[in-house]
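Researcher: Re-running this chain for the archive, since the previous output was lost when a drive failed. Same request as before.
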Amino acid sequence: MSSIKTTVLAAAAIALTIPVTSAYATSAQDVAIEYVRVKDNGTFEVRATQAIDPLCAQGGLIFTVAPHKLGVSSDGAKALLSVALTAYSLENPIDVVFDTSSAECFASEILIAR
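Model: Regenerated C-alpha cells:
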C-alpha cells in the first residue's frame, strides 16, 4: 500500500510541474516573415508570407505576441520580439506556437529555424 501512495504522490508532483497550455494551442513550422509590426503597448504582430492557420487574422497570416497573454511576461515579449526581428533580418524562417481561440492567434514561443 505504501508504494501505491508513493507512486500517486510522485505522479501528482510531476503533473504540477507540467505547464498549462491552451486546448487551442497549435504550431506552424518554417514560417517566412513578411513584416513585424510593433505597437506602443508592448504587443507585436508578425505577418507570414503564407497562411499559418485559417483561424488567424487576415486570412491566417497574422499571429500576435502580447505581454500577459498565454503566460508571456513583459520581458518575455521583448525576448520574443528580438527573436522575430533577428529571423526577419536574417531572412530565416521561424517555428511558432500559438493559440487559435481568437483571431489574434496569440503566440507563446518562437524558434529561429534553419
